[in-house]
Amino acid sequence: MVHDLYQEIILDHSKRPRNHHPMEDANREADGYNPLCGDKLKLFLKMEGDVVKDASFIGAGCAISTSSASLMTESIKGKTREEALKLLERFHELLTTDVSVSKDLGKLVVFCGVRDYPARVKCATLAWHTLKNALAEAPEPATTE
Amino acid sequence: MSTLSSAVTASFDVEKIREDFPVLKQSVHGKPLVYLDSAATAQKPYQVVEAIRRFHEVDCANIHRGVHELSQRSTAAYEETRSKVRRFLHARSKDELIFVRGTTEAINLVTATWGRRNIQAGDEIVISAMEHHSNIVPWQMLCEEKGAKLRVIPMNERGELLLEEYEKLLNPRTRMVAVAHVSNALGTINPVRQIIEMAHRAGALALIDGAQSAPHMKVDVHALDADFYAFSGHKVFGPTGIGILYGKRKLLDAMPPYQGGGDMIKVVTFEKTTYNDVPYKFEAGTPNIAGGIGLGAALDYIQKLSPDHIAAYEHQLLEYGTERLSEIPGLRLIGTAREKASVLSFVIDGIHPHDIGTILDQQGIAVRTGHHCAQPVMDFFHVPATTRASLAVYNTAAEIDTLVAGIHKVKEIFS
Question: Is the pLDDT confidence value at A38 over 80?
């Protein structure tokens, strides 16, 4: 049922997104765009060496994409680049495969309902695609296509 | 709750019409399907499904060439559709009707043939602020190729074109005015008769994108004096992959062919090819025969119901829907033109259309969410997207009640 998708924590983070502001002293930035719905977001990272010291985002999207960006910024803070990329991989598995949920995901498991809504997977992954580009410093904006 | 004027409902047995649409008799996520996405594609009555099945089972052959019985039958059925389209659009001759894949290809045919031959650097093409991407991009591509200029008729906050601004755009360099008859994103019915007349006074031609008008109202290309008129089969209860470009005979005669190949020729030698007459000059290769035959059955269906009766019924439904949706706190209708057809596009404070679409779907309600291939319209109203409920002749007031209940449910989840 629809409450499996819109769990309390997702609704909470969509209404009051955390880390939802530009970052003056960011040293990595990337843009994400979902052409299907027109959602756009900009991700800011402050890296200290290999560690994500701080993360924030701006942009407005649906409840799934906003809460996903919000929870992602929370969960990558303090992680190394490699750990963040590992988390991305786990998150992607959670949304697209039937494998049992990995315990490393923490709060991010609330997105497990998304796999039953294939049209919405891209909403949940937009922030993560953007993260990948920010960490790689790709010149192109991330797109979900 | 459901109150449509008895005069309209009496002349119109919607339940009987719904019986003709097998797809409507199903449950989605355990709820009866409420299909409110006909502006994207209309459902098909079994008469259309049956005509296509019959073609494949009984008559299947290639057309225009074979002398054998099946080819004769197939050719007759396919060409009969051209006559049906002529009656449907009130064209003078069936030679003015070209089979294409849909409205998009129809417009691209005009830009690629008429446009390439007639547009020069410094010329101007006028479109409107509410066009579908398919009536923007082909013109943009032509302008880029030729060094011509694309100009845009602005609209007001209701989603109505500003004709006095349009008048100012027209000048001796204007070659073409291309506008939608009905906006897919807003539902606005544009005063195309007047728009065409103004274009002609300025010495320009006019192309009308009829994708959203053909399913909902009587179309008379002759009375409109349109130079080109395009529509898609799948939006008039026909199959996908078939559509029509109407063009005035003298324009079509002067246009170069679109694609080269079989059927569009009279004589081919390695030195020179003589092209076929209109409309075949524009129809290279084996066409979508089954689609053409299906379109014929779809137009029969519309004619049987009568385009005027369809328009009257849908207007009642639209008024009822407008009234019911307007009562919902925090809901804003996008597109409130005084002349409107079949579209209820809206946004709700603080709730993204994609979330609305998913939650409505869980209740069996199919709506479209997104930019509706009209990103400039979204930019104008400062919204990233809208939710669009679009109506067709098989929809009911009770379904609008279900939609309203569904929206309340969305608001409850996000409260």
Answer: no
Phi/psi for B147 (5° steps) reads: 75, 30
In tens, the pLDDT along B9-63 reads 556 899 999 999 999 999 999 999 999 999 999 999 999 999 999 999 999 999 9
User: What is the domain partition of chain B in residue ranges?
Assistant: 6-44+307-413, 49-304
CA angle A2, A16, A105 (to 5 degrees): 65
Residue B111 DSSP one-character state: I
Mean pLDDT confidence for B67-84: 96
Local structure of residue A117 (DSSP, 8 states): -
User: Number of helices (H) and strands (E), helices first, in chain A?
Assistant: 5, 4
Interchain contact A42–B (C-beta under 8 A): no
Q: What is the rounded CA–CA span in Å between residue A137 and residue B58?
A: 61
What residues 332-351 of chain B have any CB closer than 8 A to a CB of chain A? 350-351
* A143 has pLDDT over 90: no
Please name the member of B350, B358, B384 whose beta carbon is closest to the beta carbon of A120: B358
**Residue A37 near chain B (CB below 8 Å):** yes
Q: Which residues pair with B389 in a beta bridge?
A: B344
Residues in A closer than 8 angstroms to B378, CB to CB, are 38
**Distance from CA of residue B235 to its chain's centroid?**
6
Q: Which of residues 46-105 of A touch B (CB under 8 A)?
A: 60-64, 66
Domain covering B49-304: architecture: 3-Layer(aba) Sandwich (3.40)
Tens of pLDDT, residue by residue over B7-21, are 555 568 999 999 999
Of A59, A55, A74, A54, the closest CA to residue A13 belongs to: A74
What are the chain B neighbours of A38 within 8 Å (beta carbons)? 370-371, 375, 378, 384-385
Chain segment B145-193, per-residue pLDDT in tens: 999 999 999 999 999 999 999 999 999 999 999 999 999 999 999 999 9
Of A38, A64, A123, the CB nearest to B371: A38
Contact B413 A6 (CB under 8 A): yes
Catalytically annotated residues of B? 373
Complex ipTM: 0.86
A13 touches chain B (CB under 8 A): no
Dump strand ranges (E) for B20-90. Answer: 27-28, 31-32, 34-35
pLDDT for the residue numbered B397: 96
| pLDDT at residue number A138 | 55
pLDDT, position B344: 98
Domain annotation for chain A: domains and CATH numbers: 2-135 (3.90.1010.10)
B6-44+307-413: CATH, from 3.40.50.300, 3.90.1150.10, 3.90.1480.10, 3.10.50.30? 3.90.1150.10
**What average pLDDT score do residues B79-96 get?**
98
Does B376 touch chain A if contact means CB atoms closer than 8 Å? Answer: no
Question: Cα distance from A6 to chain B (closest Cα, Å)?
Answer: 8
User: Nearest CB to B414: which of A11, A37, A66?
Assistant: A11
